[in-house]
Automatic annotation (TrEMBL):
Keywords: Membrane, Nucleotidyltransferase, Transferase, Transmembrane, Transmembrane helix. It comes from the Bacteria. It comes from Methylopila henanensis. Pfam families: GGDEF. This is Diguanylate cyclase domain-containing protein. Residues 344-476 form the GGDEF domain. The chain crosses the membrane at residues 24-41, 94-112, 124-145, 165-183, 204-221, 233-258. The lineage of its organism: Bacteria, Pseudomonadati, Pseudomonadota, Alphaproteobacteria, Hyphomicrobiales. GO terms for molecular function: diguanylate cyclase activity.
């Protein structure tokens, strides 16, 4: 192993160890978010521009799949004390800020758990709707704490009570959207998805979209033109339509940060004299400008997910999860075209589960279905990840596998039959299933999909007639345009005609 690979493996291992340490990950993320929120500064009303610590903690806890513990409150309080000491904050300020943030975390998690328990999170659209509802309702504890604090200090005024909830709502909505869509905001394009024609956006498109949106936003800040701000929000739709949900949430967050940090409020349609009112309107404006892109991105993501789900179900067997007859026919045609052009040699195997009817008649269809699932798993495990295993219907299976030689094909068939022919327990009864296999090679035997299926079926029929729990390959058919010596050898035909059975 080279030095570079060793360093990479070490760094990857340390990262995995860090992620597996729940307490360390949660505490560090909370502290970093608290520092980032302090770095953004405060608004005109004295409220933080964005409160990031609470939503980051909520998002991390949701992603980890666990609930908050009493020790977590102690850790959060310790973070506030340490950072308050480092920043020179009064102890009273540290207490109220910590209480406000911790209450925000606890209430938001309580709401999210209640929504998940009631089954409200069924799709990305329901998830985003739940996040918005959690962001709005979880702002209530902050209002109560602000009222208590200001009342005790004798400084109760509408300004912080007006801006504080807006800060909490916007911060929670944006940060939860980012944390919960990270790694999930763009569906992969795979052969199984049925939509490989969709071209994934590359780095250049990401950079172009970011540069365009940033230029419009900067122009709006420099000139204070409402038209440019609206154009910048429309540019976010580029992210929504092309770059995925996660990229859209990150862009919306960046849009909000830049607008809140550097915006002047001169582009507001309502002219207000009170700085707190102006600041509140800025939060409303940012929410209205960023929300459409996130909504569109969520809808687009959901449509892509459903389209791939329907394509998957159309090409896969509902019981075993293997490719179904339609999907197998498409893959066979593709492999046959490649074999006909001399690009590859592959093995087609038709596989029948032996004596399956007697299993259904004796133990019932539920046990029969369980046996089919078990056999399907064994067939899949005996093949490579790149091979195709399908259920054609009933107890009929099939497989496609590229093979360099006939000997490799024979070894693959042997491994497949031996893997299935192991004892398993179905419905409390020990059974030892077996399969019979008929195989054919392309382009050695043929390159037409229908002819390949016919030859494999004939080989399967002969193997069944001679006995079961074994395999037989079709004999080679010499054609006028016979394959070259590199892809076909006369001695292969002698091996391919053999029928092999297991005891």
């Amino acid at each position: 192993m080279s030095a570079g690979n060793a360093v990479y493996e070490y760094a990857a291992g340390r990262l995995r160890a860090f992620r597996s340490n729940r307490n360390l990950t949660l505490t560090l993320c909370y502290a970093i978010a608290l520092v980032a929120g302090r770095a953004l500064g405060e608004g005109a009303s004295g409220q933080p521009m964005l409160a990031l610590a609470a939503p980051v903690a909520v998002g991390v806890l949701i992603r980890m799949g666990g609930s908050i513990e009493s020790a977590d409150f102690v850790r959060f309080a310790a973070v506030h004390l340490v950072l308050g000491f480092l920043f020179g904050d009064p102890l009273e300020t540290v207490f109220w800020d910590g209480a406000r943030s911790i209450a925000h975390v606890a209430f938001a998690l309580l709401l999210f758990r209640a929504a998940r328990t009631r089954g409200l999170i069924r799709s990305p659209i329901y998830l985003m709707a739940t996040l918005m509802a959690v962001a709005v309702v979880s702002a209530a504890p902050g209002v109560v704490i602000d009222v208590v604090r200001l009342s005790l200090q004798g400084a109760l005024s509408p300004s912080p009570l007006m801006v504080g909830p807006l800060v909490d709502i916007l911060s929670m909505a944006l940060m939860l959207a980012i944390v919960l869509t990270q790694g999930r905001g763009c569906l992969p394009t795979t052969p199984e998805s049925g939509h490989t024609e969709e071209k994934r956006p590359g780095p250049i498109e990401h950079l172009s979209a970011a540069a365009f949106a940033g230029a419009l936003l900067w122009f709006s800040l420099d000139g204070g033109a409402l038209e440019a701000v609206l154009a910048g929000s429309i540019a976010l739709l580029w992210f929504a339509l092309r770059l995925g949900l996660f990229a859209t949430t990150v862009a919306a967050f960046a849009f909000a940060v830049v607008e809140l940090k550097f915006g002047t409020g001169r582009d507001l349609l309502i002219d207000a004299a009170d700085p707190a009112v102006v600041e509140a309107l800025r939060y409303v404006k940012v929410a209205l400008l960023t929300a459409p892109s996130i909504v569109v991105a969520t809808v687009v993501y959901e449509q892509q997910r459903l389209r791939r789900l329907f394509a998957y179900r159309a090409n896969h067997d509902g019981l075993t999860g293997l490719v179904n007859r339609v999907g197998f026919a498409e893959r066979l045609e593709f492999q046959a075209r490649r074999a006909g052009s001399g690009h590859t040699r592959f093995l087609l195997m038709l596989i029948d589960l032996d004596h399956f009817k007697s299993i259904n008649d004796t133990f019932g269809h539920a046990s029969g279905d369980e046996l089919l699932v078990t056999v399907a798993e064994r067939l899949r495990s005996s093949m490579r990840a790149t091979d195709v295993v399908a259920r054609l219907g009933g107890d009929e299976f099939a497989a496609l596998a590229p093979v360099p030689t006939v000997d490799d094909a024979m070894r693959l068939a042997k491994r497949l039959v031996e893997t299935v022919n192991q004892t398993c327990e179905i419905g409390g009864v020990a059974l030892r299933p077996s399969v019979t296999v008929g195989g054919v090679l392309a382009p050695d035997n043929a390159t037409d999909p229908q002819r390949l299926m016919q030859l494999a079926d004939e080989a399967l029929y002969k193997a069944k007639a001679a006995g079961r729990n074994g395999w037989r390959f079709a004999a080679m058919e010499l054609k006028d345009d016979r394959p070259s010596a590199a892809t076909w050898r006369p001695e292969d035909a002698e091996v391919a005609m053999e029928t092999v059975f297991l005891d």
